[in-house]
């Protein structure tokens, strides 16, 4: 031993003993110094507190300071850029044979690998929960989207503490973690300013969040958050769009991290709103795509073109068959009228513009990584879509997606009035089902359908220049969203923790894809052998090259139809995927024993992963009671302005009688401004004063506005303004009998000032299920969009004083006679009126 080394070695020994640093943990630098770092063993995060390794005497001169080491990832660990777009099927992007240009996705594919057999869950929240946890969607409470949560473990929309996210794991191992864009993994009833925030991105292990919480968002006027603070107002200049603003913020974030700590590895999860409805590209992108005339040929010819492209690219086998067009469900293009063709082409062009625009902005983020000199050691995973292309626009499409979720179909003639505005801030549009089916070529079905690949097959590209040398390669192994988190852990050399925050962890249920990165394994058998699928009763079981798929019993655009009470009894189809890539030939009759075998495995998987009970209901789950801030209450009081309360935490007044009473002080010169509102331009209500006169307006999904207005101005001073609505229907209670007769009925509204009637009229129909979901309940002003652009423009703050606003909700109660009639109707298969 060299002279002078004994003290240093002793310090190292003391450090190991004091900190309990386990074998496998790498200590860098001088222990106790400000520059010391440590790489964790990682089985327990966060690690136990590091003990003080110095010496403390009465005086500092005789004491030795000591700093705990800073946790860093393993040496050489890559950056991770995890990208996933929305509502985009296999045949959408040019990188997988589509006609819509996606050069950024192509760039990743050409610099890395294309995956042709990668699968989702068929719906937004479930896929995203599987992606960030490495577990099946029911295992983490996301059997459906958060707005449809029910009181069963597989469906409660709460990711348990025993299943930490990839963000949390990497953060505790020294990564900087961030999340941009769509969340949709926060329970809808925990999305208010009151929290709790443990199920928000920053509570799930992501240091920084910039985006929106719900399933989709108006890209021109989003309900936008930075961490847990709403960003409002956000429009800096005309033409502001979240798709660009989000890329700007992500690039700024990356440059911030790089400037402060150039060697700091990062995980950036980038999840834009595109291309979920509303389809909101900028006018420039609409012009670019329209000039290409990609869709004049119609959807039947488009399918043939995409199918041929896919074979040329090698992203489907040469013997893969194009599944037949569903003539019993959808018209052929040549059967459409001239007006239908004109409208539908416009719908597809705006959707395609949104795809291209989104991909372009993603490309800017990728370029920022390269500009920092970090592309070589960055693992980029670019997943096209979280499910198949959406058919939720119904057969004719819609200028307002909120209308669809309320069962309202807009005739083509009425939609043509929005032709020039399609995709602008005055629409909330979605395209026709025919395009959705075509964009899922070569497969059948669409988003929501978990049993058929049109709903679950996603094109994916992965690049990592320092590791993946088989550039432009194609991989056909079967894999699933739950495989991404294990892949990231293997790539970063970060172990899966056994304990997080003292909670024993349930192991990840996916398998790593990293074996496919090696060119020698290009054709290796898939290591993902078995996978169940289930969404709203529709289900399937993949096992070793076979898939048993239930027959589709409900078209995904039929959100208000009757549903089966026995989804467990849905008949199975069988496909041999070893020779039938697209599920084109049902061989169930030829192999009944295989059907029984796979059905048995499905039930085993369903029990194992919290899939039961199977539930085929759809829209009615939107009004399922859940533990929100309003649960069990029917009287609500506000004594001062409050904006930004999301629908999940706001009173629900649909399908009920209600009374708004506003006690206010009107200023000299007359009152003006919003008292209380919920929703916005595409569906909602507003109670306000306009030029001194009281007004209550119902916006019926932007197709009609019904107004109650007093003729006289209210003089200055204290007054009570009241709107009372008496509902005519039986309400939500009828849903317990699988009966929709009680919802969306009419009623009579009365507007009063100081007890005096000033307006009265009947409303024939009301909204049955939902207001505009990306808006909020606001008191004292109106954030985002207003319910009537002709009356006012937000924020439209009230210029007087609100002393008190009281809302009283009275829900209809069924009489014994009502229940008897509903039971008889259910038994007879009829709808009770």
From TrEMBL:
Record keywords: Calcium, Hydrolase, Metal-binding, Signal
Compositionally biased intervals (Basic and acidic residues): 813-824
Name of one Pfam family that matches: Sulfatase
Domain named Sulfatase N-terminal: residues: 78-493
Region annotated Disordered, chain positions: 813-833
Single GO MF descriptor: hydrolase activity
Endpoints of the signal sequence: 1-23
PANTHER family reported in the protein's UniProt record: ARYLSULFATASE FAMILY MEMBER, BLL2667 PROTEIN
Family, per entry: Belongs to the sulfatase family.
Protein name: Arylsulfatase
Protein species of origin: Methylocystis echinoides
């Amino acid at each position: 031993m060299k002279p002078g080394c004994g003290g240093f070695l002793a310090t190292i020994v003391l450090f190991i003993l004091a900190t309990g640093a386990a074998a496998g943990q790498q200590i860098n630098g001088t222990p106790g110094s400000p520059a010391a770092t440590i790489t964790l063993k990682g089985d327990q995060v966060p690690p136990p507190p590091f003990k003080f390794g110095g010496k403390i005497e009465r005086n500092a001169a005789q004491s030795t300071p000591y700093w705990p080491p800073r946790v860093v990832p393993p040496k050489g660990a890559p950056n991770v850029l995890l990208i996933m777009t929305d509502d985009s099927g296999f045949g959408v992007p040019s990188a997988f044979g589509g006609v819509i240009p996606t050069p950024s996705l192509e760039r990743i594919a050409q610099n890395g690998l294309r995956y042709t057999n990668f699968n989702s869950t068929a719906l937004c929240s479930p896929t995203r929960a599987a992606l960030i946890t490495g577990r099946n969607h029911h295992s983490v409470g996301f059997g459906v989207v958060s707005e449809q949560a029910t009181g069963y473990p597989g469906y409660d929309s709460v990711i348990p503490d025993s299943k930490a996210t990839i963000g949390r794991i990497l953060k505790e191992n020294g990564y900087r973690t961030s999340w941009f864009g769509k969340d949709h993994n926060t329970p809808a009833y925990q999305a208010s300013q009151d929290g709790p925030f443990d199920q928000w991105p920053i509570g799930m292990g992501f240091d920084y969040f910039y985006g929106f919480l719900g399933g989709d968002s108006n890209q021109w006027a989003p309900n936008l958050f930075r961490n847990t603070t709403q960003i409002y107002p956000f429009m800096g200049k005309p033409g502001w769009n979240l798709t660009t603003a989000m890329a700007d913020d992500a690039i700024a974030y990356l440059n911030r991290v790089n400037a402060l700590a150039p060697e700091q590895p990062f995980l950036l999860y980038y999840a834009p709103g595109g291309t979920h409805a509303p389809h909101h590209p900028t006018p420039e992108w609409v012009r670019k795509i329209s000039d290409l005339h990609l869709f004049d040929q119609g959807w039947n010819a488009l399918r043939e073109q995409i199918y041929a492209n896919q074979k040329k690219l090698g992203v489907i086998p040469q013997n893969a068959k194009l599944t037949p067009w569903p003539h019993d469900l959808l018209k052929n293009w040549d059967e459409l009228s001239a007006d239908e063709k004109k409208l539908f082409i416009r719908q597809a062009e705006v959707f395609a513009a949104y795809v291209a625009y989104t991909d372009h902005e993603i490309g800017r983020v990728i370029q920022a990584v390269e500009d920092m000199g970090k592309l070589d050691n960055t693992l980029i995973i670019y997943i096209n879509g979280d499910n198949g292309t959406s058919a939720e626009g119904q057969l004719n499409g819609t200028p307002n997606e909120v209308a669809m979720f309320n069962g309202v179909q807009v005739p083509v003639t009425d939609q043509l009035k929005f032709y020039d505005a399609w995709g602008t801030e005055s629409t909330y549009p979605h395209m026709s089902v025919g395009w959705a089916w075509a964009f899922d070529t070569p497969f059948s079905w669409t988003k929501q359908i978990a049993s058929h690949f049109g709903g679950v097959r996603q094109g994916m590209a992965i690049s990592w220049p320092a590791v993946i040398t088989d550039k432009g390669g194609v991989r056909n192994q079967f894999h699933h969203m739950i495989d991404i988190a294990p892949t990231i852990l293997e790539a970063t050399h970060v172990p899966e923790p056994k304990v997080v925050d003292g909670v024993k962890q349930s192991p990840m249920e996916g398998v790593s894809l990293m074996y496919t990165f090696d060119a020698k394994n290009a054709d290796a058998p898939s290591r993902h052998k078995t996978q169940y699928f289930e969404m709203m009763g529709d289900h399937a079981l993949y096992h070793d090259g076979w898939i048993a798929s239930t027959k589709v019993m409900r078209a995904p655009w039929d959100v208000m139809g009757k549903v089966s009470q026995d989804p467990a009894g849905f008949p199975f189809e069988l496909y041999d995927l070893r020779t039938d890539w697209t599920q084109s030939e049902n061989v169930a009759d030829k192999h009944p024993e295989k059907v029984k075998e796979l059905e048995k495995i499905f039930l085993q998987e369903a029990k194992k992963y919290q899939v039961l009970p199977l539930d085929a209901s759809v829209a009615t789950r939107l009004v399922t009671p859940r533990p929100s801030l309003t649960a069990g209450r029917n009287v609500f009081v506000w004594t001062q302005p409050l904006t930004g309360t999301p629908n999940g935490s706001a009173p629900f007044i649909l399908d009920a009688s209600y009374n708004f009473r506003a006690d206010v002080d009107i200023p000299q010169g007359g009152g003006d401004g919003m008292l209380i509102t919920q929703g916005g331009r595409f569906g909602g209500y507003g109670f306000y004063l306009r030029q001194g006169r009281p007004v209550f307006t119902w916006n019926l999904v932007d197709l009609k506005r019904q107004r109650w207005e007093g003729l006289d101005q209210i003089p200055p001073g204290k007054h009570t303004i009241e709107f009372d609505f008496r509902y005519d229907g039986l309400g939500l209670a009828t849903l317990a009998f699988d009966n929709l007769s009680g919802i969306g009925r009419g009623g009579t509204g009365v507007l009063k000032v100081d007890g005096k009637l000033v307006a009265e009229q009947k409303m024939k129909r009301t909204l049955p299920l939902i207001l505009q979901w990306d808006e909020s309940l606001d008191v004292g002003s109106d954030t985002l969009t207003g319910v009537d652009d002709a009356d006012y423009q937000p924020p439209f703050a009230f210029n007087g004083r609100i002393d008190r606003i009281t809302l009283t909700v009275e829900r209809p109660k069924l009489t014994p006679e009502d229940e008897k009639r509903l039971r008889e109707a259910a038994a007879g298969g009829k709808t009770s009126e």
